[in-house]
Amino acid sequence: MEIKFSLSDIEAFEKQDRTNLINGLSGYKSAHLIGTKNVSGLNNLAIFSSVVHIGANPPLIGFVHRPATVERHTYENIKETGHFTINHVPIELYQQAHQTSARYPRNESEFDACGFTEFYGEVLSAPYVLESPIKIGLTLEEEILVKSNQTIILIGKVQEIYLAPEFILESGVLNLSAARTLIVQGLETYYKSEKIGTLTYAKPNSTV
Ligand SMILES: Cc1cc2nc3c(=O)[nH]c(=O)nc-3n(C[C@H](O)[C@H](O)[C@H](O)COP(=O)(O)O)c2cc1C
Q1: Which of 64, 60, 45 is nearest to 146 (CA)?
Q2: What pTM did the predictor assign?
């Protein structure tokens, strides 16, 4: 027999239990490292799982940021410079990637503290993660405040992508299994992916 949680049950949960339950409900997510640098040259690296495809033309990717009610380095740096990088995480580095979620002081680089290497392209001031199999450079395009809870959706326009040729097929499809990119459930449980099949474009009255 299934159990059922009503909204009032959910609201009555301990805060941590509610957070764990609700954070897992939207399913598995890719774990990404977002790299930024402030105008004084201090860099920052933090793990984010709410990264989402917004559109392909123009190429837009967004992510959901917690309310900016306390010091938020990623948010502040993106607002200052308009630049950020989204870096896929190789599964082997999941513990280091998780550690970037700790609240390091502004003048302490998570690159150094968590064992990642900065890499700079020619277009953006924000650092990429050298160890990342798929690195995406973006400029801030739009910021949306979610009125219901003050979270912020930041949308960036893709300016450049770095990846090894074996991680992309001729059709442009990414081979994320080959890139061994990390998956996360909620804020603490990490997974690796397993491909189960590739299908053709679905149309009514034909089988894929
Ligand atoms: C697996 C995981 C996923 C996370 N995803 C997000 C997210 O999507 N949005 C967010 O605002 N914070 C997220 N966080 C929390 C940030 O990593 C954390 O607030 C971090 O300290 C932000 O650092 P900053 O202040 O240096 O930007 C996540 C943490 C973990 C462990």
Answers
A1: 64
A2: 0.96
